[in-house]
Sequence to fold (210 residues):
Amino acid sequence: VAMMVCAIVVAFYLRSIGKAWLFVWAMGAGIGPVLILRWFWWRINAWSEIAALAASLVMAFGFEVTAALQAGTQYELFATPVTVAGVALQTHHKALLLVPTSIVTWLVVTLATPPVDSGRLLAFYRRVRPGGFWGPIAAAAPQVRCDGLSWHVIGAWAAGVTGTYCLLFGLGKLLLGEPGRGWGLLLGAGLCSVVVVREMLRRDPADDQR
Fold:
């Protein structure tokens, strides 16, 4: 209910959807690193993600509140820059401050909170076989061969990203009355899905030993 009320208030004052997307981008940039690194570092936990999101939210909204106080009646939601030391900070400037602050925050919280239960981490490690820094978890499962950033993984990732965009734009083209391009993009999405599924079904010889 609170989120719905906030959305109504924001929609009432919003004058540019483009500016709103820039705000969302800046706010999400702070949590992006921890969402990626959680696959590569065993120490990251739920508190790391909560801290990254909280830091991003506080700073993003703090910039808007400061801009509103500085601009007064001239303030426009998500479009008015913040002035710091005589320098007007645009969205990309805010991100340069928000991202490192968020990273420092979630790193401190990560090291100050207990890790995820070792049994759950071990089950995740055996199933996903992630690369990166898994220290004691990897030592507890020496028979697991990690794919890391192999060509198989990179290819599946590229196919997944490409397939997602082909699906989105393909449906869009069909809705806009461009069936030729639409079906072509959907065909591309189907081919990419085959690559992803084949990678998901690819068996590790070590699986037969577990």
Q: What stands out?
A: The chain has a mean pLDDT of 88. The first strand starts at residue 82 and ends at 84. The beta strands are 82-84, 87-89.
